[in-house]
TrEMBL record:
It is a multi-pass membrane protein. It comes from Marinicauda algicola. This is Magnesium transporter MgtE. NCBIfam families: mgtE. The keyword Membrane applies. Homodimer. Acts as a magnesium transporter. GO terms for cellular component: plasma membrane. The chain crosses the membrane at residues 275-292, 304-328, 349-371, 377-397, 409-431. Belongs to the SLC41A transporter family. Keywords: CBS domain, Cell membrane, Magnesium, Membrane, Metal-binding, Transmembrane, Transmembrane helix, Transport. SUPFAM superfamilies: CBS-domain pair, MgtE membrane domain-like, MgtE N-terminal domain-like. InterPro entries: CBS_dom (IPR000644), CBS_dom_sf (IPR046342), Mg_transptr_MgtE_intracell_dom (IPR006668), MgtE_N_sf (IPR038076), MgtE_transporter (IPR006669), SLC41_membr_dom (IPR006667), SLC41_membr_dom_sf (IPR036739).
C-alpha cells in the first residue's frame, strides 16, 4: 500500500486535498502534527470537511477542535456519530470535555452523556443509539417506509433490530430480507430469531470477537433489564480488534500502547509509555545478579562455566518467547481457555523437551571435542532443563494472568525472560554442582 503523506507546498497541498478521497485525507491528517493537521483541515472543501473529521483519530480531532470556535466547532461535533463523539469527549481533558458538552444541542448532549455513563472499553461505550427499530407486527411495506424515513440518521440499515412495545429484542432483519419479502408479510415472519446479543457492560473485545466468530454485521446491545439500547456495528468492532492487537504487541515489547499515531505522540509521552516497564525489568534483573553472586565460588573454581551462561540463557529466553507468544495469541483468539491449562503446559513442555534433547545431544557431541566431558555434560543437561522450564513458564504465566483477570499480554517476552534468566542460572549451577562436584 502506497504511503500517504500530506504535501508540504501550500498550493500542492490544496490541490491534493481537493482531489484525494476522504479516507486518504484522513490517513494523512492522522499522521500529521497538530499544527499541520489543523491547517490542512482549514483548506478542505466544505463538503469534505465533516466526512474527513468523522474518520480521524481523537488526537487529530482534538487539534482541529482547538482550532475552531463557536458554531463551526459545534457543527463538527454534532455531525459525528454518537459513539465517535463520545470517544472524542472521553479523550479530551475533563474541563475541555465538559465545556464542549455544554455547547452542544440538547439531543446531541443527551446521547453523548448516555454513552459516557457506561464503563470504558465496554459495549455501551462503542454502541450507537441511532438505528432503525422495527416492530414484529408491522407489514414489510410499512417497514420499508420506516427505513426510508429514518435511514439518514441511522448508523446502518443493513441490520435492524425487531423489538416489541417494551423494547424487548425479538430478532433482527436486514434490508435485503425486506426487499425480497412480499409487502403484505409481517416483519415478524421475515425476521431472524434467536440472534446473539450483548449487555452494555460486556467487554468490547468480547463483543468484537463474537461478531467476528459469528460473522455478524452488527450485534444488538441490551441493558440490565433486557431492553434494547443500541447496536455495535462491524466497523467499530474492527477498530476494537485493531486496538487490542496493538496493545498486545506493545506489551510484548515491554511498553504501553500509545493513545495516538506515532508522530502525534510527544517525546515525554513516549518516555511515559516505556520507563515504568524498564524500571520494573531493571529491578527484576537484580535477581540474576544475586544468583551470580551466590554461585561466585563455583565460577571461580571452574571458569569455563561462565563461557556458556549467555548461550544457555539465550536458548531459554528464545524457548520462553516461543511459548508465551503462542499461548497469548491462542488465548486472545479463544483457541484455548484456562480450563486447558494442563493440556497446554503438557504440550509446550513436551515440544520443548524434544527440541531440548536434540540440541543437547548435538551440543554434547560438539563440546566433547573441545572441553572436558564433565563440562560438556553439564552444558547439555542444563540446556535441556532450561528449555523445558522456559516452555513451562511461557505456557503457565499467561494462564495465571487470565485467572487473575490480568491481560495475559502483560506477561510478555521480557517479563518471562527475566524469570527464565534467574531460574535458568540456578538450574545451571545446581547441575554443575551435581555433575562436577564443585
Amino acid at each position: 500500500m502506497e504511503e500517504i503523506v500530506l504535501p508540504r507546498d501550500r498550493q500542492e497541498r490544496r490541490d491534493w486535498l481537493q482531489d484525494a478521497g476522504v479516507h486518504a485525507v484522513a490517513a494523512a491528517l492522522n499522521r500529521a502534527g497538530a499544527k499541520d493537521c489543523a491547517r490542512a483541515f482549514r483548506e478542505l472543501p466544505a463538503g469534505k470537511a465533516l466526512p474527513v473529521f468523522s474518520r480521524l483519530e481523537p488526537p487529530a480531532q482534538k487539534a482541529i477542535v482547538e482550532d475552531h470556535e463557536g458554531e463551526e466547532r459545534k457543527a463538527l461535533i454534532e455531525g459525528m456519530a454518537p459513539d465517535n463523539r463520545a470517544r472524542l469527549i472521553a479523550y479530551l481533558p475533563e474541563d475541555r470535555a465538559q465545556s464542549l458538552l455544554e455547547s452542544l444541542g440538547e439531543e446531541a448532549r443527551a446521547l453523548t452523556r448516555q454513552l459516557l455513563a457506561y464503563p470504558e472499553q465496554s459495549a455501551g461505550r462503542i454502541m450507537t443509539p441511532e438505528f432503525v427499530r422495527l416492530r414484529p407486527d408491522m407489514s414489510v411495506a410499512d417497514a420499508l417506509e420506516e427505513v426510508r424515513a429514518k435511514a439518514e440518521r441511522a448508523e446502518t440499515i443493513h441490520f435492524m433490530p425487531v423489538v416489541d412495545e417494551d423494547m424487548t429484542l425479538v430478532g433482527t432483519v436486514g434490508l435485503g430480507q425486506l426487499v425480497l419479502a412480499e409487502g403484505g408479510q409481517s416483519v415478524g415472519d421475515v425476521a431472524t430469531r434467536d440472534v446473539p446479543s450483548v449487555e452494555t457492560k460486556t467487554d468490547q473485545e468480547a463483543v468484537a470477537r463474537l461478531m467476528k466468530e459469528a460473522d455478524l454485521m452488527a450485534v444488538p446491545v441490551v441493558g440490565e433489564d433486557g431492553r434494547l439500547v443500541g447496536i455495535v456495528t462491524f466497523d467499530d468492532a474492527m477498530e476494537v480488534l485493531e486496538f487490542e492487537q496493538a496493545e498486545d504487541i506493545a506489551r510484548a515489547g515491554a511498553t504501553e500502547p500509545a493513545a495516538a499515531p506515532y508522530l502525534s505522540v510527544s517525546l515525554f509521552g513516549l518516555v511515559r509509555s516505556r520507563i515504568t516497564w524498564l524500571a520494573v525489568l531493571m529491578l527484576a534483573y537484580a535477581l540474576t545478579v544475586q544468583v551470580l553472586d551466590a554461585f561466585e565460588a563455583q565460577l571461580e573454581e571452574t571458569v569455563a562455566l561462565a563461557l556458556f551462561i549467555p548461550l544457555l540463557i539465550g536458548m531459554g529466553g528464545n524457548a520462553g518467547t516461543q511459548s508465551v507468544t503462542t499461548v497469548v495469541r491462542a488465548l486472545a483468539v479463544r483457541d484455548i481457555g484456562t480450563a486447558d491449562a494442563l493440556a497446554v503446559a503438557g504440550k509446550e513442555v513436551g515440544a520443548a523437551l524434544v527440541m531440548g534433547a536434540a540440541l543437547a545431544l548435538a551440543g554434547y557431541a560438539l563440546l566433547i571435542a573441545f572441553f572436558p566431558p564433565g563440562i560438556a555434560l553439564t552444558v547439555a543437561l542444563s540446556g535441556l532443563a532450561i528449555i523445558g522450564f522456559a516452555a513451562l513458564s511461557g505456557a503457565v504465566m499467561p494462564m495465571v494472568a487470565r485467572v487473575l483477570s490480568i491481560d495475559p499480554a502483560v506477561f510478555s517476552s521480557p517479563v518471562v525472560n527475566t524469570v527464565i534468566d534467574a531460574v535458568g542460572l540456578v538450574i545451571y549451577f545446581l547441575i554443575a554442582k551435581a555433575v562436577l562436584g564443585i
